[in-house]
């Protein structure tokens, strides 16, 4: 997707006087041949094409490792706070990977050795006792400070010194120890692991049992880690802003040029807004304004506009600003969702404008049509997805649904000429320059701009014309976007203020 979006389109879409007429004109003209876009000849303020980097300085390996560790911790803390669905997952190595083969070979050798020791006469318990020691430490790590009785029970039964004496005297009952361990695991595990622990009781051979015990303990460790994450999230939320800012400042001190792309990002946003204000200040004849005063920019407006630019970012060609780098994947996801909503909204608008008003106003028909288009756009994020092919299929399906509904409601049938026009207009949406698609996109950005400027996270009472069918989905995206932006502002606002004061001081 293109890096920039046309601010004039955003303003046009928000104009209550001519917005509906613009939509109608766009729908009527969308099947005509599209002309080449001409470059604007309007004057623009000087834009810095490349950020000014600080002089390079040498750093030691220790400083690099320390910086990398700090960044890693900051990213982890940020992920826990921002992502409510954050979960730690067990490590699963690919089946054909070298690591998986090496791991399997080493584990097999270890368990084979344990099996040989236990098969000796008398049995040798060296490896088995070490495993019991590891299991004991793992079980103790699951306990909370108040679990005194369980702690004493584990410590008493899994007393390694006593177990060693029993092994030396031939009195060790390893099966009884395994039975106690499985029972304690059933006491401490999360409900989701009850089935796995229950299966352990059916394993009678010692070596396979110990192997399965360690497998379930690994899952229990993950469960405990996720419980710890959910427990610290409320406390981490309170401190995360200061923590992330502190870690970024430490990183900035070691890498002084770490705000270069942020500076360029904010400069471009200020330039775009300044150009737009100059255009709006010009009289209808295009002459110079009567006043010599230059338009003034609001730092908050520049900042909000800069965030909107992230929803049209060219991620393959341009580095992402440093302060939002940890959220790049989230902005990419929002960008894709908005692109899907733009296509969806454009298709529905075209369809409803051509279908009889009697069926386009039926809620169940509108929902069914929306669901069909959404399903056919599901794989839009995949490299193998072809929008033109998908829109061709959508056009065919939409025409069938419209014809069927017209017949069901007793309306005049959908003529072949209308079908041809409707399919052509839907296929034209594949072009970013399609009039309907452009207006839908600009109105979506208008909604997000208004929503962001309002400072509220609750859905607005109304959306711009033409967005009604996708209002629910658009509000969900808006809530995610504003939460992401507001948190980023809280963390990095001192840096943004300092950069914008210099930028706006030059305008």
Question: Treating each run of at least 4 consecutive H or I residues as one helix, how many helices?
Answer: 19
> What is the H-and-E element order?
HHHHHHHHHHHHHHHHHHH
Shape by Cα distribution: extended
Major β-sheet profile: none
In the predicted model, the low-confidence regions spanning at least 5 consecutive residues are: 1-20, 26-59, 284-292
Number of strand elements: 0
Q: What is the SS-derived class? A: mainly alpha
Distance between the termini: 29 Å
Provide the residue-averaged pLDDT. Answer: 80
Task: Tell me the strand percentage band.
Answer: under 5%
Radius of gyration, taken over Cα atoms and rounded to an integer in Å:
32 Å
Helix content range: 55-70%
Describe this structure in words.
- This protein is mostly helical and 507 residues long.
- Helices cover 67% and strands 0% of the residues.
- The chain has 19 helices and no strands.
- It has helices at 7-13, 19-29, 61-82, 98-119, 126-141, 148-157, 160-168, 174-188, 194-200, 206-254, 260-281, 299-309, 328-354, 357-360, 363-376, 387-409, 416-428, 435-454, 471-506.
- The two termini are 29 Å apart.
- The model is unreliable at 1-20, 26-59 and 284-292 (pLDDT under 50).
Short description:
With 507 residues, this protein is mainly alpha-helical. It has 19 helices and no strands.
How are the elements arranged and paired?
Elements: H1 7-13, H2 19-29, H3 61-82, H4 98-119, H5 126-141, H6 148-157, H7 160-168, H8 174-188, H9 194-200, H10 206-254, H11 260-281, H12 299-309, H13 328-354, H14 357-360, H15 363-376, H16 387-409, H17 416-428, H18 435-454, H19 471-506
Helix pairs in contact: 1-18, 3-10, 5-8, 5-10, 8-9, 8-10, 10-19, 11-12, 11-19, 12-18, 12-19, 13-15, 13-17, 13-18, 13-19, 15-16, 16-17, 18-19
């Amino acid at each position: 997707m293109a890096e920039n979006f046309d601010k004039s389109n955003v303003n046009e879409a928000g104009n209550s006087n001519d917005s509906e007429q613009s939509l109608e004109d766009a729908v009527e003209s969308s099947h005509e041949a599209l002309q080449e876009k001409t470059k604007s000849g309007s004057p623009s303020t000087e834009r810095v094409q490349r950020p000014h980097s600080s002089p390079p300085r040498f750093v030691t390996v220790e400083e690099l490792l320390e910086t990398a560790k700090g960044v890693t911790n900051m990213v982890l803390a940020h992920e826990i706070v921002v992502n409510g669905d954050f979960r730690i997952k067990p490590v699963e190595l690919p089946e054909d990977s070298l690591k998986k083969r090496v791991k399997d070979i080493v584990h097999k050798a270890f368990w084979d050795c344990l099996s040989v020791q236990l098969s000796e006469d008398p049995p040798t318990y060296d490896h088995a006792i070490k495993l019991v020691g590891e299991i004991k430490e793992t079980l103790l790590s699951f306990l909370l400070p108040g679990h005194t009785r369980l702690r004493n029970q584990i410590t008493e039964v899994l007393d390694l010194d006593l177990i060693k004496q029993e092994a030396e005297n031939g009195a060790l009952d390893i099966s009884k120890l395994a039975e106690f361990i499985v029972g304690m695991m059933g006491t401490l595990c999360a409900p989701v692991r009850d089935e796995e622990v229950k299966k352990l009781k059916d394993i009678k051979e010692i070596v396979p049992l110990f192997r399965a015990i360690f497998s379930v303990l690994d899952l229990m460790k993950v469960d405990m880690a996720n419980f710890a994450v959910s427990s610290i999230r409320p406390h981490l939320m309170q401190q995360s802003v200061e923590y992330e800012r502190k870690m970024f400042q430490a990183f900035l001190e070691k890498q002084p040029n770490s705000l270069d792309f942020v500076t360029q990002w904010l400069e471009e946003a200020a330039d775009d807004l300044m150009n737009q204000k100059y255009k709006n200040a010009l009289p209808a004849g295009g002459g110079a304004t009567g006043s010599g005063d230059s338009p003034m920019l609001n730092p908050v407006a520049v900042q909000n506009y800069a965030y909107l630019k992230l929803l049209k970012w060219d991620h393959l060609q341009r580095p992402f600003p440093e302060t939002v780098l940890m959220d790049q994947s989230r902005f990419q996801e929002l960008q894709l969702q908005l692109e899907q909503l733009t296509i969806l909204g454009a298709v529905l608008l075209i369809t409803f404008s051509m279908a009889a008003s009697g069926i386009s106003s039926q809620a169940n028909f509108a929902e069914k049509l929306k669901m069909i288009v959404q399903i056919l756009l599901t794989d839009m994020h995949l490299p193998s997805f072809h929008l033109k092919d998908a829109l061709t299929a959508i056009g065919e399906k939409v025409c069938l649904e419209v014809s069927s509904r017209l017949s069901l409601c007793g309306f005049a049938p959908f003529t072949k000429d209308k079908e041809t026009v409707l399919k052509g207009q839907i296929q034209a949406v594949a072009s970013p320059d399609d009039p309907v698609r452009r207006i839908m996109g600009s109105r979506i950005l208008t909604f997000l701009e208004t929503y962001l400027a309002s400072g509220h996270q609750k859905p607005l009472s109304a959306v711009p014309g033409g967005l009604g069918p996708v209002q629910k989905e658009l509000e969900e995206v808006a809530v995610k976007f504003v939460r992401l932006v507001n948190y980023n502002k809280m963390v990095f606002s001192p840096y943004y203020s300092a950069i914008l004061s210099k930028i706006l001081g030059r305008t």
